[in-house]
Specification:
Layout (H helix, E strand, L loop, with lengths): L2 H7 L1 E8 L5 H18 L11 H12 L7 E6 L2 E6 L9 H6 L5 E7 L6 H13 L3 E6 L8 H12 L2 E4 L1 E4 L7 E4 L4 E4 H5 L8 E2 L5 H8 L1 H17 L5 H5 L3 E6 L8 H11 L6 E3 L2 E3 L7 E9 L8 E9 L1 E3 L3 E4 L4 E4 L1 E4 L11 E3 L3 E5 L9 E3 L17 E7 L5 H13 L4 E4 L7 E6 L3 H14 L3 E6 L3 E5 L16 E4 L5 E5 L2 H10 L5 E3 L4
Helix pairs in contact: 2-3, 8-9, 12-13
Bound molecules: guanosine-5',3'-tetraphosphate.
Length: about 525
């Protein structure tokens, strides 16, 4: 086996997605602790000590030298080299969150057992489904009152159109949470063992027929319920099929409690076995194997430093094939120029670690003098690849941005065009008018702040921003259409993208339906399908 084969086959690159507060940070932290310190840090911690996982990471990193970044956490676990991609949520939610998913080979979806599917999970799931990557579900907070487990699975199947396969099954929830039953091994993990402070909870072999033993472990009431539920599950659920898992059609489901470190280890072990090593990526109609010797990568995120003191731009790339070596000259496909990637790092916190080599599946961040755009390809000289690019995601918030200083017209146009080109925002023109007023669309409100900051600090331009009530955008597919003759509601706005394609902005679904109703000739298309 070549070094590349060895290194690539042990890599697992995935993202954890969830709605804020479902437990993504807590689960990530626990996985990290398993990665480095199973003996000491895997123990149950009180809530107070568990606070602020991010700063905990910093501490852990200092102590153990784990490479931790705001964008990707890399650590070793057994034979594996794991890359967890960060998908910013809360107020940091932006188009970058979606784009990050294009760099992952699989996804772990954390669901709050009391809440089920929530809006942010829904949005992120759609992006994963587009790529047909494996999706693993961790139903968290079983130590609290939870919704009925069958109902939760039903919701996942109906809303997401995927099959589910529970790997384990919870025994009660909240105050009556007794543990989980492992369906494959026919073992019980008891929750009380998690509380006794053991670092590794021992699974107890126990058949469902062994009434006496089960009663002593979880009590008669829970035993009866469990036996009934497992019978129902075995009869009604999907069969396990690893190919379907790998093509994203069947999601293995795990129940547990991240905070109590309960069910996390079996989850990790099963997940690593079932998920895939780095996948092939599509380039010019051809799939490029990660095992190819030559290095190639694509840009999925550009982060302009918000700190005025040093105006760094960091470009994040996902390595799709081969091995990256520091100091070597590579080729930037879009500019058709050779390029040396300066100070490549795997760590993007306050201090970053310069790396010498990295392999397909890894993410590297490089200092960018302003040459890269989202979706660009960098590769070995002479290698003919150009990755398929990253789809643009439908903005959900819009504003009119208006230049206020006529003397800075040029800077305004230049700045906003460049920032849009980098993918920090999306820009739409108002037909038949100039660049003094444009529409800006974003996925997360944070992107407006980034725009304002960068326009001022990099281009010296202030502008007026007026938020509009639009939240839906559709392409107009009709070739010849007279927009002035369309019967539209007052709030509906006609705009054009940078390629001159026509779009309509709506404030709500009913407004779009109204437009379709009153103008039967109108053909609209979803934004992300273009
Ligand atoms: P997020 O990254 O998805 O936003 O969620 P995060 O891990 O920050 O968890 C959100 C809250 O849920 C935290 O409580 C966390 O402690 C709690 N939590 C996570 N997993 C579990 C679990 O398995 N059981 C229970 N009962 N709670 C869980 P918080 O009060 O908001 O913060 P903190 O004071 O604990 O830091």
């Amino acid at each position: 086996m070549s070094t590349i084969e060895k290194e690539v086959s042990r890599r697992r690159t995935f993202a954890i997605i969830s709605h804020p507060d479902a437990g993504k940070t807590t689960l990530t932290e626990k996985l990290l602790l398993y990665g480095r310190a199973i003996q000491s840090a895997g123990s149950v911690k009180g809530k107070q000590n568990d606070k602020h996982a991010v700063s905990d990471w910093m501490e852990i990193e200092k102590k153990r030298g784990i490479s931790i970044t705001s964008s990707v956490l890399q650590f070793e676990y057994e034979v594996y080299c794991i890359n967890i991609l960060d998908t910013p949520g809360h107020q940091d939610f932006s188009e970058d969150t979606y784009r990050t998913l294009t760099a992952a080979d699989s996804v772990v979806m954390v669901i709050d057992a009391a809440k089920g599917i929530e809006p942010q999970t829904r949005k992120l799931f759609r992006v994963c489904a587009m790529r047909h990557i494996p999706i693993f579900t961790f139903i968290n907070k079983m130590d609290r009152e939870a919704r009925d487990s069958f109902e939760l699975l039903d919701e996942l199947e109906k809303e997401f159109g995927i099959g589910t396969y529970p790997m384990n099954w919870p025994i009660g929830c909240g105050r009556d949470f007794k543990g989980v039953f492992d369906r494959e091994k026919r073992q019980i993990l008891t929750f009380s063992d998690a509380h006794s402070g053991g670092t590794r909870i021992k699974a107890i072999e126990c058949s469902l027929e062994d009434t006496e033993k089960l009663d002593s472990l979880i009590g008669e009431y829970s035993r009866k319920a469990l036996v009934d539920e497992i019978e129902l599950l075995d009869g009604a659920s999907f069969d396990f099929d690893i190919d379907k898992v790998r093509s994203g059609e069947l999601s293995p489901v795990f129940f547990g409690s991240a905070l109590n470190n309960f069910g996390v280890e079996p989850f990790l072990e099963n997940f690593l076995k079932m998920t895939t090593a780095p996948l092939s990526y599509l380039s010019n109609e051809e799939k490029i194997s990660p095992l190819r010797e030559e290095f190639s990568a694509f840009v999925f995120k550009i982060q302009a430093n918000m700190n005025k003191a040093h105006r760094d731009r960091i470009t994040f790339m996902r390595i799709c094939s081969g091995k990256f070596e520091r100091g070597k000259e590579y080729y930037h496909v879009q500019s058709k120029r050779p390029i040396k990637l300066s100070r490549p790092g795997q760590m993007m916190a306050q201090e970053r670690e310069v790396i010498d080599e990295a392999y397909a599946g890894d993410i590297i961040g490089v200092f960018d003098p302003g040459v890269f755009s989202i979706g660009d390809t960098v590769c070995e000289k002479g290698m003919k690849v150009e990755y398929a690019g990253i789809p643009t995601f439908a903005p959900e918030h819009f504003a009119v941005i208006e230049q206020i200083d006529a003397l800075k017209r040029k800077q305004f146009a230049k700045g906003i065009t460049q920032i849009a080109r980098e993918g920090a925002i999306q820009m739409f023109f108002i037909p038949e008018s100039g660049m003094e007023r444009v529409y800006v669309g974003v996925v997360g409100m944070l992107q407006f702040d980034v725009l304002e900051f960068r326009m001022e600090s990099e281009y010296g331009v202030k502008y007026r921003r007026t938020d509009t009530p639009h939240s839906l955008v559709r392409y107009v597919m009709n070739e010849d259409i007279d927009f002035s003759s369309l019967n539209l509601m007052q709030n509906t706005k006609w705009v054009q993208d940078v390629n001159g394609r026509n779009l309509l902005l709506f404030t709500a679904e009913y407004e779009m339906n109204w437009a379709l109703d009153k103008n039967p000739q109108l053909i609209l298309k979803e934004f992300s399908q273009m």
